[in-house]
Amino acid sequence: MRKLRLITCYWPLLLLFLPLPVKAEATARLEKLEALIAHHDRLYHEEAEPEISDAAYDALKREWRRLRAQAEEAGKAPARERVAGRVAHHRPMRSLEKVNTEEELRGFLEGCGKADPNARFHVAPKVDGLAVSLWFREGRLERVLTRGDGERGEDVTSAFRAAVRGFPERLRRGSTEVPAFMELRGEVYVPPDTFAAINAARNEEGAAPFATARNFAAGQLLREEVEAVERKPLRCVIFGWGGTEAGGAPFSTQTAFRAGLRSWGVPVLSPAWGKLQLSEIPDIIAAATRDRREWNLPTDGLVIKAESAALRNVLGATGEAPRWAAAWKWANPAAWTTLERIFLRIGRTGTVTPMAVLEEVRISGREVRYASLHSRAFVESLDLREGDRVRLELAGDIIPTLTDRDAAARGPESLPYSFPATCPGCAEPLRHGESYECRNWSCSRRAFERLCHYAETLPLRGVGKATLRKLQRAGLVATPADLYGLTADQVRKLNGFGKRRTEVFLAAIAAGRGVTLASFLRALGLPGIGKAAAQQLADRHASQLTAVFGEEAPLPFLAASSSREVSLLRVALADGECLAEARRLWRQVYGLPR
Ligand SMILES: [Zn+2]
Prior knowledge:
Layout: H1 2-9, H2 11-14, H3 23-45, H4 54-73, E1 87-88, E2 97-99, H5 102-115, E3 121-127, E4 130-137, E5 140-146, E6 152-153, H6 157-163, E7 181-189, H7 192-205, H8 213-222, E8 235-244, H9 254-264, E9 273-276, H10 281-291, E10 299-306, H11 309-315, E11 325-329, E12 334-346, E13 352-363, E14 366-372, H12 376-382, E15 389-395, E16 399-405, E17 431-432, E18 436-437, H13 444-457, H14 465-473, H15 480-483, H16 488-492, H17 499-510, H18 517-524, H19 531-549, H20 564-573, H21 576-590
Parallel strand pairs: 2-11
Antiparallel strand pairs: 1-6, 3-9, 3-10, 4-5, 4-7, 7-8, 10-11, 12-13, 12-15, 13-14, 15-16, 17-18
This protein binds zinc ion.
């Protein structure tokens, strides 16, 4: 059993030993990979909108490193330069040794126990965010650096101030004296409930959701145009210290450090368990594994440290990681299955999302048959093909995510997936530039998604997707305005609609008449116009909007305002078909349709 688990968990490594493809193909693939990695780096760092998971990105990097090493060996490629322009840490910011099995954990704990038989331990969540080092001089926040390569990090001070909520600029005078200078080490993250709300809002605006909470946090800190960070969605917790003016540790134990931080008004990690004996640790891990969903922290494991600063000094560090701390990672439940087919989902705003149909597979008690493949770039970057053996993970135990594929298992008939040039909904050419999308407003798939969005956001209770599908197939309804023209006779012809159900259904539609202007705007489902934007537009421009939708005014009035909401609306309504549809709906909702 254990052997089997080992094989499963090291499957990705086998990718490293795949037979070499033909040389020219390798060079072409290398170039393609470099372009893809650059593309994803840009999305990640500059636009804070990564399209692929960390695991998929790592797989890309792995493949790139392998091909690159081969090319360098063959003398075909120069060695890469390192990134310049970083700031040196006072003390190196090392990463943690990962322990994945109980045996490895025991090895780590016993190593500490050998140096000090009375060693005590400290356990806290391992936050899945972006590690930062904060410099405090005379108690004031002076600088914030990312980990970078461990020796030097990026200066992200202004982005930190703009995006992190609830972190003090100045330390309170507490029970413990503040050193003249010290580095605090912490993690910047977005709480899961905030992250879910951000993605829900983006979904409503028709924008692609962020792939992971970690990528979102990193993107907020690393992107350049700081003023674009509108709210303060991030948090920062401190878990350790780096260098100090005097050079030594400012505290004798981790527990004393936490108390000191609290007295200075600095947020600390919670929950945490201090002064533990070695024998208590398995129970703490079991309890944490059980309760971790309640923490509202993006966490993927626990960090176990020696309590005492003196013991840490004795244990020291390897080149890579300290010997006095270890990261216990929870494995995401995963399974291998077959990618049977790829199909394209066309969203309301035209974005094309490739979807995977999988051979049904059971992961932690759930049957999984479908998974989002996020974007065209994701499929191309992993070179996913129909028929591939693929590794599926339940990210955060919820969302099925494809993290790897086994190219060695491919048969001779395997071909790269070829993305269609035309839309499966309307047969118009798909645009493929920065994004891959259908730009035809009248596309039947997009129209159907708008219809569903309209019924769902108002909401029209009881007007569900299945019924809308029937109405669309029967040719009775194409846009929301058509709903108001439905007669009882037409509805009764649908399968399953008797007299009573028809009455209830038509009453539900009628409830959409006379809603607030903000609800109307939101239900239109225009790109970028979600709940907040719709409310702003309704508050500030009610009379002009009434004139525009009521056909009394042409569009140009909107040019007078420069707000983001107005420009989004202007862009959307510049499409004549969109404007006409909105006006038809307006007449049904507010006017007398005669
Ligand atoms: Zn289309």
